[in-house]
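Below is a typical protein record.
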Amino acid sequence: MGGRSPEHEVSLMSGAEVLKHLDSKKYEIVPITIPRNGTRIPDRVGDDRKNTIVFIAMHGIYGEDGTIQGMLEAMGLRYTGSGILASALGMDKLHFRKLMIAEGITIPQYMAVDKETKISEIEKKLKYLLFVKPNAQGSSVGAGIAKNRLELVKRIKEAQKYGTTVLVDEYISGREFTCAVLGNEDCCALPVVEIKPLKGDFFDYASKYTESGSEEICPAKISLGLTKQIQTLAVKVYKAVGCRGFGRVDFLLKDDKTPVVLEINTIPGLTPASLFPKSAKAVGISYSELLDKLIKYAHDRN
């Protein structure tokens, strides 16, 4: 847990919750906190590599983008969650979207911009309102809504603090849903959750991680047909990316009928306020049982 990502604090919350619910009768638990400068060398990992599982509770860059996964692969250690390629695809929103287009999956209209892109080029392709976010961050870090040119310039500059490539999306005003997926090749979708932000205009950092920041309805109060459609899409996205263990796919409902895929989270939050544990609980899977499953999926991976 921890690490060099802007999501360092969220990772610590996830890690603390995992430690709280791991069964010490089943596992010998060795907490490893990577500081913000990333310099700590683990005291002991892999004394018995055959029976060692690294539980990754690191979000964002270095933890969720394939970096630590590559290090662990090189060390010959099993770990929870997706592998190198799926992790990298999940973090890089631009390449993820290119994959979604190839798979025929509906995504927002968007434009990838860099420091050379002119505002007029964006305005020619997309109409306000617009949604701006960094290409490779999670937890809505650096993301925001632009209502006009002045706000668009400001939002792009803010997002570029986290990387040179920024995504500018059409703003979709609609209900927001997320669907967790659990398993390796034989995966399944958990109940759909509807998210109603209470702290901001969208499901931003404050809505995600502060108490009473949002209302989450699980299972979502939608038709069986729409439920099945979202669950089927979530599994399709999960398999297309090549995820393992667990993941969470986020959606917006456009025109009150079309689920639009926003992104996939290959290491969903595991904090007390996080959506994945809530979705698992809705089908009778306790937090400790969920951790057992994730560890088993890691142990069973090829």
